[in-house]
Amino acid sequence: MNDDQLHQLLRESPAPVSLPASFTREVWARIEAEEATSLRTALSQLWHAWLSALARPVPAFATITVCMLLGGGFGWVQHREAFHTQGELAYVQSINPFLKMEHEVTQ
Amino acid sequence: MKRGLIILFVAVLLGVGMFFGSQLMLKPCACANTTQVPVENGSLLPELEWLRHSLHLTDPQFAKVQALHLAYQPRCAELCMRIQHSDQALQAAASRNRTVTEDVVKLLRERSSLTQDCQQAMLLHVYETAACMTPEQAETYLKVVLPHVLGAAHASH
User: Fold this and answer.
1) How large is the ipTM?
2) A 31-50: CB under 8 A from B
3) From the candidate CATH numbers 1.20.120.1490, 1.10.357.10, 3.20.20.70, 1.25.40.10, the one assigned to the domain spanning B47-156
Protein backbone atom coordinates (compact mmCIF):
# COMPACT_ATOMS: atom_id res chain seq x y z
CA MET A 1 0.00 0.00 0.00
CA ASN A 2 1.43 3.31 -1.03
CA ASP A 3 0.91 6.70 0.72
CA ASP A 4 -1.96 7.80 -1.49
CA GLN A 5 -3.86 4.60 -0.81
CA LEU A 6 -3.20 4.96 2.91
CA HIS A 7 -4.51 8.55 2.92
CA GLN A 8 -7.57 7.46 1.00
CA LEU A 9 -8.23 4.67 3.49
CA LEU A 10 -7.82 6.99 6.51
CA ARG A 11 -10.20 9.55 5.00
CA GLU A 12 -12.85 6.93 4.36
CA SER A 13 -12.76 5.36 7.82
CA PRO A 14 -11.91 8.03 10.49
CA ALA A 15 -11.21 6.70 13.97
CA PRO A 16 -14.01 7.56 16.44
CA VAL A 17 -12.46 9.99 18.91
CA SER A 18 -14.52 11.25 21.86
CA LEU A 19 -13.04 14.14 23.82
CA PRO A 20 -14.14 14.88 27.37
CA ALA A 21 -16.27 18.02 27.81
CA SER A 22 -13.60 19.70 29.92
CA PHE A 23 -10.87 19.07 27.34
CA THR A 24 -10.59 22.68 26.09
CA ARG A 25 -10.79 24.15 29.57
CA GLU A 26 -8.06 21.83 30.82
CA VAL A 27 -5.79 22.67 27.92
CA TRP A 28 -6.14 26.40 28.61
CA ALA A 29 -5.60 25.89 32.32
CA ARG A 30 -2.35 24.08 31.59
CA ILE A 31 -1.23 26.81 29.19
CA GLU A 32 -2.00 29.51 31.77
CA ALA A 33 -0.17 27.61 34.51
CA GLU A 34 2.85 27.24 32.24
CA GLU A 35 2.83 30.96 31.37
CA ALA A 36 2.50 31.99 35.01
CA THR A 37 5.44 29.84 35.98
CA SER A 38 7.55 31.25 33.21
CA LEU A 39 6.67 34.85 34.21
CA ARG A 40 7.55 34.12 37.82
CA THR A 41 10.80 32.55 36.69
CA ALA A 42 11.62 35.53 34.49
CA LEU A 43 10.94 37.98 37.34
CA SER A 44 13.00 35.91 39.71
CA GLN A 45 15.87 35.84 37.24
CA LEU A 46 15.61 39.60 36.79
CA TRP A 47 15.63 40.18 40.56
CA HIS A 48 18.68 37.97 41.01
CA ALA A 49 20.48 39.64 38.10
CA TRP A 50 19.77 43.07 39.61
CA LEU A 51 20.99 42.03 43.04
CA SER A 52 24.14 40.61 41.48
CA ALA A 53 24.66 43.85 39.55
CA LEU A 54 24.29 45.82 42.80
CA ALA A 55 27.42 44.17 44.08
CA ARG A 56 29.37 46.21 41.50
CA PRO A 57 30.31 49.79 42.48
CA VAL A 58 28.63 51.73 39.67
CA PRO A 59 25.12 50.20 39.92
CA ALA A 60 25.40 50.30 43.71
CA PHE A 61 26.29 53.99 43.69
CA ALA A 62 23.55 54.73 41.14
CA THR A 63 20.90 52.90 43.20
CA ILE A 64 21.92 54.66 46.40
CA THR A 65 21.87 58.04 44.62
CA VAL A 66 18.44 57.38 43.09
CA CYS A 67 17.00 56.30 46.46
CA MET A 68 18.43 59.37 48.18
CA LEU A 69 17.13 61.68 45.47
CA LEU A 70 13.70 60.06 45.61
CA GLY A 71 13.59 60.33 49.40
CA GLY A 72 14.73 63.95 49.37
CA GLY A 73 12.36 64.79 46.51
CA PHE A 74 9.32 63.28 48.20
CA GLY A 75 10.26 65.06 51.42
CA TRP A 76 10.53 68.38 49.61
CA VAL A 77 7.21 67.90 47.79
CA GLN A 78 5.45 66.96 51.02
CA HIS A 79 6.93 69.94 52.83
CA ARG A 80 5.79 72.25 50.03
CA GLU A 81 2.25 70.91 50.19
CA ALA A 82 2.19 71.20 53.96
CA PHE A 83 3.51 74.78 53.74
CA HIS A 84 0.71 75.72 51.34
CA THR A 85 -2.03 74.01 53.33
CA GLN A 86 -0.86 75.38 56.68
CA GLY A 87 -0.22 78.82 55.22
CA GLU A 88 -3.68 78.98 53.67
CA LEU A 89 -5.33 77.91 56.92
CA ALA A 90 -3.23 80.33 58.96
CA TYR A 91 -4.13 83.21 56.66
CA VAL A 92 -7.85 82.42 56.67
CA GLN A 93 -7.72 82.04 60.43
CA SER A 94 -6.06 85.44 60.77
CA ILE A 95 -8.86 87.24 58.91
CA ASN A 96 -11.86 85.19 60.04
CA PRO A 97 -13.12 86.10 63.54
CA PHE A 98 -15.01 82.78 63.84
CA LEU A 99 -11.92 80.71 63.13
CA LYS A 100 -9.82 83.00 65.27
CA MET A 101 -12.19 82.39 68.17
CA GLU A 102 -12.07 78.59 67.63
CA HIS A 103 -8.29 78.79 67.53
CA GLU A 104 -8.17 80.75 70.78
CA VAL A 105 -10.59 78.34 72.46
CA THR A 106 -8.53 75.29 71.45
CA GLN A 107 -5.28 76.89 72.63
CA MET B 1 23.72 38.37 45.94
CA LYS B 2 23.88 38.90 49.69
CA ARG B 3 26.03 41.96 49.11
CA GLY B 4 23.46 43.26 46.63
CA LEU B 5 20.70 42.83 49.21
CA ILE B 6 22.74 44.73 51.79
CA ILE B 7 23.38 47.57 49.34
CA LEU B 8 19.69 47.70 48.44
CA PHE B 9 18.77 47.82 52.13
CA VAL B 10 21.28 50.61 52.73
CA ALA B 11 19.95 52.53 49.69
CA VAL B 12 16.36 52.28 50.94
CA LEU B 13 17.45 53.28 54.43
CA LEU B 14 19.30 56.32 53.08
CA GLY B 15 16.26 57.23 50.96
CA VAL B 16 14.00 57.12 54.02
CA GLY B 17 16.63 59.11 55.93
CA MET B 18 16.70 61.74 53.20
CA PHE B 19 12.89 61.97 53.32
CA PHE B 20 12.80 62.71 57.04
CA GLY B 21 16.02 64.72 56.87
CA SER B 22 14.58 67.03 54.24
CA GLN B 23 11.46 67.48 56.37
CA LEU B 24 13.61 68.46 59.34
CA MET B 25 15.84 70.75 57.32
CA LEU B 26 12.91 72.50 55.67
CA LYS B 27 10.81 72.68 58.87
CA PRO B 28 11.78 76.18 59.95
CA CYS B 29 10.31 77.62 56.73
CA ALA B 30 11.92 80.49 54.91
CA CYS B 31 9.40 82.86 56.44
CA ALA B 32 10.95 82.49 59.88
CA ASN B 33 14.35 83.69 58.69
CA THR B 34 13.42 86.49 56.36
CA THR B 35 13.71 90.06 57.53
CA GLN B 36 10.84 91.11 55.30
CA VAL B 37 8.20 89.34 57.35
CA PRO B 38 5.92 91.83 59.08
CA VAL B 39 6.13 91.84 62.83
CA GLU B 40 3.37 92.91 65.14
CA ASN B 41 3.82 92.81 68.92
CA GLY B 42 6.93 90.73 68.35
CA SER B 43 5.08 87.92 66.56
CA LEU B 44 5.77 86.87 62.98
CA LEU B 45 2.96 86.68 60.48
CA PRO B 46 3.83 83.61 58.39
CA GLU B 47 0.36 83.58 56.83
CA LEU B 48 1.32 86.70 54.88
CA GLU B 49 4.52 85.04 53.74
CA TRP B 50 2.38 82.20 52.39
CA LEU B 51 0.28 84.77 50.53
CA ARG B 52 3.38 86.39 49.07
CA HIS B 53 4.81 83.03 47.95
CA SER B 54 1.66 81.47 46.57
CA LEU B 55 0.53 84.59 44.67
CA HIS B 56 4.03 85.80 43.75
CA LEU B 57 3.37 89.25 45.18
CA THR B 58 5.86 91.99 44.40
CA ASP B 59 7.39 94.03 47.25
CA PRO B 60 5.07 97.04 46.77
CA GLN B 61 2.03 94.74 46.56
CA PHE B 62 3.17 92.92 49.67
CA ALA B 63 3.68 96.17 51.56
CA LYS B 64 0.08 97.22 50.78
CA VAL B 65 -1.32 93.79 51.68
CA GLN B 66 0.66 93.84 54.91
CA ALA B 67 -0.59 97.30 55.86
CA LEU B 68 -4.20 96.30 55.16
CA HIS B 69 -3.78 93.08 57.11
CA LEU B 70 -2.38 94.83 60.16
CA ALA B 71 -5.03 97.56 59.98
CA TYR B 72 -7.77 94.92 59.88
CA GLN B 73 -6.50 92.99 62.90
CA PRO B 74 -8.04 95.22 65.64
CA ARG B 75 -11.45 95.05 63.90
CA CYS B 76 -11.11 91.27 63.58
CA ALA B 77 -10.15 90.94 67.25
CA GLU B 78 -13.12 93.10 68.29
CA LEU B 79 -15.52 90.96 66.26
CA CYS B 80 -13.93 87.82 67.69
CA MET B 81 -14.56 89.13 71.21
CA ARG B 82 -18.16 90.03 70.39
CA ILE B 83 -18.75 86.51 69.03
CA GLN B 84 -17.34 85.01 72.22
CA HIS B 85 -19.60 87.16 74.41
CA SER B 86 -22.61 86.47 72.22
CA ASP B 87 -21.98 82.72 72.29
CA GLN B 88 -21.56 82.71 76.05
CA ALA B 89 -24.76 84.70 76.57
CA LEU B 90 -26.65 82.44 74.18
CA GLN B 91 -25.32 79.32 75.86
CA ALA B 92 -26.31 80.63 79.29
CA ALA B 93 -29.81 81.66 78.14
CA ALA B 94 -30.38 78.37 76.34
CA SER B 95 -29.27 76.41 79.42
CA ARG B 96 -31.58 78.29 81.80
CA ASN B 97 -34.83 77.11 80.22
CA ARG B 98 -36.02 74.17 78.20
CA THR B 99 -38.18 76.37 76.00
CA VAL B 100 -37.31 78.95 73.39
CA THR B 101 -37.75 82.09 75.46
CA GLU B 102 -37.87 85.64 74.13
CA ASP B 103 -34.43 86.17 75.56
CA VAL B 104 -33.05 83.25 73.52
CA VAL B 105 -34.76 84.50 70.36
CA LYS B 106 -33.29 87.97 70.92
CA LEU B 107 -29.81 86.54 71.45
CA LEU B 108 -30.15 84.35 68.35
CA ARG B 109 -31.07 87.43 66.33
CA GLU B 110 -28.07 89.26 67.73
CA ARG B 111 -25.86 86.32 66.86
CA SER B 112 -27.17 86.29 63.27
CA SER B 113 -26.61 90.01 63.00
CA LEU B 114 -23.08 89.55 64.34
CA THR B 115 -22.41 86.80 61.80
CA GLN B 116 -23.52 89.18 59.07
CA ASP B 117 -21.26 91.95 60.45
CA CYS B 118 -18.30 89.54 60.49
CA GLN B 119 -18.89 88.37 56.95
CA GLN B 120 -19.28 91.95 55.73
CA ALA B 121 -16.06 93.01 57.45
CA MET B 122 -14.20 89.99 56.02
CA LEU B 123 -15.58 90.57 52.53
CA LEU B 124 -14.58 94.23 52.66
CA HIS B 125 -11.08 93.32 53.79
CA VAL B 126 -10.74 90.58 51.16
CA TYR B 127 -11.87 92.92 48.37
CA GLU B 128 -9.48 95.64 49.56
CA THR B 129 -6.65 93.11 49.60
CA ALA B 130 -7.57 91.81 46.15
CA ALA B 131 -7.52 95.38 44.85
CA CYS B 132 -3.76 95.49 45.58
CA MET B 133 -3.17 92.61 43.17
CA THR B 134 -3.20 92.02 39.44
CA PRO B 135 -6.47 90.60 38.06
CA GLU B 136 -4.94 87.10 37.82
CA GLN B 137 -3.58 87.20 41.36
CA ALA B 138 -6.86 88.60 42.66
CA GLU B 139 -8.81 85.85 40.94
CA THR B 140 -6.63 83.14 42.51
CA TYR B 141 -6.78 84.87 45.89
CA LEU B 142 -10.55 85.20 45.85
CA LYS B 143 -10.98 81.63 44.67
CA VAL B 144 -9.05 80.40 47.72
CA VAL B 145 -10.35 82.82 50.33
CA LEU B 146 -14.01 83.45 49.46
CA PRO B 147 -15.25 79.93 50.33
CA HIS B 148 -13.77 80.39 53.80
CA VAL B 149 -15.23 83.87 54.19
CA LEU B 150 -18.70 82.80 53.09
CA GLY B 151 -18.62 79.59 55.09
CA ALA B 152 -18.78 77.41 51.97
CA ALA B 153 -15.44 75.79 52.79
CA HIS B 154 -16.94 74.16 55.90
CA ALA B 155 -19.88 72.87 53.91
CA SER B 156 -17.70 71.30 51.24
CA HIS B 157 -15.42 69.49 53.76
Assistant:
1) 0.71
2) 48, 50
3) 1.20.120.1490
Long-range contacts of A16-22 (CB under 8 A, 24+ apart): none
Chain B closest CA to A34's CA: distance in Å? Answer: 27
Q: What are the extents of the domains in chain A?
A: 22-55, 58-107
Identity of residue B118: C
pTM metric for this prediction: 0.60
Residue B18: which of A52, A72, A97 has the nearest Cβ?
A72
Coil, helix or strand at residue B152? helix
> How far does A84 lie from chain B, in Å, by closest CA?
7
Q: Please say whether the beta carbons of B149 and A96 come within 8 A.
A: yes
Q: What is the pLDDT of residues A74-92, one digit of tens each?
A: 998 988 888 788 888 888 8
